[in-house]
Write a structure and sequence with these properties.
Elements lengths: L38 H14 L9 H4 L2 H10 L7 E4 L2 H11 L7 E5 L8 H10 L2 E5 L7 H8 L4 E7 L11 H11 L2 E5 L11 H4 L3 E5 L11 E5 L49 H15 L1 H22 L2 H4 L2 E3 L21 H8 L2 E3 L9 E2 L2 E5 L13 H4 L5 H6 L3
Parallel strand pairs: 2-3, 2-4, 4-5, 5-6, 8-9
Antiparallel strand pairs: 1-7, 6-7, 10-11
Helix pairs in contact: 1-9, 3-9, 4-5, 6-7
C-alpha cells in the first residue's frame, strides 16, 4: 500500500461556486443524480433559444457547427479522436446501437452485474430473447469487489460484457482494464456505461479499449438531459445505424443536393448520430460543460473529490474514536473495488458505533489514496490506513447508516 499523503500535499481545485447559480445555504452533492448547470451553460442555452426566434439567421452550416465541437471536446475527455464519437440522446440509444452491431449467436451469453441500471439491460434482454441466448448476472460479491466476480463469469460462450465503470446505486468501481484483458482472451466485446463516473474519474479509451463507451451528459459532464455521446471502436465503423437520417449521409452539408440520395455515410462514428443531432438548444449547453471540465482537467477534479470525501470519512472516523482503537483495517487486494461499508461482518447492524461495540473490528476494501494520516483533533495520533472510496461515495454513508443491506443498496446519491 502506498504511503499516505499529508494534508499539505493535497491538490484542490479552488472553490468554483461562483460559476454556478447555487445559493450559499445549499450544499449540492448529488451530481450522480443530475448536475447543476454552469452559468455559462445557462447563458449559452438562453442564447440558443433566442436565436430560434430569428430563424433567418440559422444557416445550413449551423447544423454541423453545433455538432463537431462536441465531438472534439468529448474525444479529448476520453483520450480518443472525433471520428470515434457519435452524438446520441440517451444511454439506452447507445446500448441499442451496440446490441445492433455486435456479433451474437444462439447459445452465447452476455455478462452484466446485479442491479445494473435498466438502460444497460433491456436491449440485451431483447437480443438474447431473439437469438436464444442468455444473460449471466454477476451477483453482488460479499466483499463488494465486482472485478474478480465479473472475470469469473466470463467464459468461452460470452459474446458481450456490458458493465458500468461505477455502480449506480453505491459507487462501487470495476477495474475495466482487468475486465478488458479477460474479454480479449475470451473474444468478448466490452460495452461500458460510464454515466456515473466520466467527468469525475479519468478515462482513456486507449488504455481500456472498449468496443462501445456510452455517456449521458447531464451528470458529471455538466450538460443537459437529452444529449449524450457514444464512443465506437473503429472496427465497428462500418456498422448499421439505428436510424437512417439525412444528416449522417455523405455530402449532407450541401443542402442543394440532399435529394441526390446517397448510399455512403459520413465518416467514422458519425453514421451512428441520432437524427436531429444538431440540437441547437442542448449542444451549446453541453459544449460549455465540456469546455469547463477540460479547463479544470479531470485528474485534478478526481483528486479534489478524493480529498473532500476522504476528509469527510476521516472526520467521522475520528468522531467515533476509531483512529485510536484501530478497529478499521484495509485489505490491499482490491485496487479498484469499492464495496458498501456493511460488507464485513455480513450481519445487519443499526449504526456505526453499535457495530464496532458488538464486533470490535471492521474490514473494508476501499479503492483510492489515503490523504491524511493524523487526526487534527488528536495531534500525534495516527489514523488507521483508510483508502479513499469514490467521488460519489458520500456523506450519508458515514453520517447515518441504513438499518438493512437492502436499504443501503437502494439509497442513491
Amino acid at each position: 500500500m502506498n504511503e499516505p499523503l499529508t494534508c499539505e500535499e493535497h491538490f484542490m481545485i479552488p472553490n468554483q461556486a461562483h460559476l454556478f447559480d447555487i445559493p450559499k445555504e445549499v450544499t449540492y452533492l448529488n451530481c450522480a443524480y443530475t448536475s447543476p448547470l454552469l452559468k455559462t451553460a445557462r447563458a449559452a442555452g438562453k442564447k440558443a433559444v433566442q436565436a430560434k426566434s430569428q430563424p433567418w439567421n440559422i444557416t445550413p452550416a449551423h447544423f454541423f457547427s453545433s455538432i463537431e465541437p462536441l465531438r472534439d471536446l468529448f474525444s479529448k475527455l476520453v483520450d480518443g479522436s472525433p471520428d470515434q464519437v457519435a452524438i446520441i440522446p440517451a444511454v439506452s440509444y447507445g446500448i441499442a446501437l451496440a446490441a445492433k452491431n455486435l456479433p451474437f449467436s444462439s447459445g452465447q451469453n452476455i455478462v452484466v452485474i446485479e442491479d445494473q441500471f435498466p438502460s444497460n439491460i433491456y436491449s440485451w434482454k431483447r437480443l438474447t430473447d431473439e437469438k436464444n441466448g442468455k444473460i449471466l448476472t454477476v451477483s453482488r460479491p460479499e466483499d463488494g469487489n465486482w472485478t474478480p466476480a465479473v472475470i469469473d463469469m466470463i467464459n468461452s460462450e460470452t459474446a458481450i460484457v456490458a458493465v458500468p465503470n461505477s455502480h449506480w446505486t453505491d459507487g462501487t468501481l470495476l477495474d475495466l482494464v482487468r475486465i478488458k484483458s479477460e474479454c480479449r482472451k475470451a473474444g468478448s466485446a466490452l460495452v461500458i456505461d460510464a454515466t456515473q463516473s466520466l467527468g469525475a474519474l479519468s478515462f482513456s479509451v486507449k488504455e481500456i479499449q472498449p468496443d462501445f463507451l456510452i455517456y449521458d451528459s447531464h451528470k458529471w459532464l455538466l450538460g443537459a438531459y437529452g444529449l449524450g455521446f457514444c464512443y465506437v471502436d473503429p472496427k465497428w465503423h462500418d456498422g448499421i445505424p439505428l436510424e437512417e437520417n439525412w444528416l449522417n449521409r455523405a455530402g449532407s452539408e450541401d443542402f442543394s443536393r440532399l435529394v441526390d440520395y446517397q448510399d455512403e455515410y459520413q465518416p467514422g462514428a458519425r453514421r451512428f448520430d441520432v437524427g436531429g443531432a444538431s440540437n441547437f438548444f442542448l449542444s451549446p449547453v453541453a459544449q460549455a460543460g465540456l469546455t469547463q471540465l477540460l479547463e479544470w482537467q479531470v485528474p485534478e477534479i478526481e483528486m479534489s473529490l478524493k480529498t473532500i470525501t476522504t476528509q469527510m470519512a476521516f472526520q467521522r472516523t475520528c468522531r467515533h474514536g476509531l483512529h485510536k482503537k484501530k478497529y478499521l483495517s484495509v485489505s490491499e487486494d482490491s485496487p479498484s473495488g469499492l464495496p458498501p461499508i456493511y460488507t464485513q461482518p455480513p450481519s445487519m447492524w443499526k449504526n456505526f458505533s453499535t457495530h464496532f461495540a458488538e464486533h470490535n473490528r471492521f474490514q473494508a476494501k476501499i479503492a483510492g489514496q489515503l490523504f491524511c494520516n493524523s487526526c487534527p483533533a488528536c495531534p500525534g495520533e495516527k489514523m488507521v490506513k483508510l483508502r479513499y472510496a469514490a467521488p460519489r461515495w458520500s456523506l450519508w454513508q458515514w453520517s447515518g447508516f441504513p438499518t438493512t443491506e437492502a436499504e443501503n443498496r437502494s439509497r442513491h446519491l
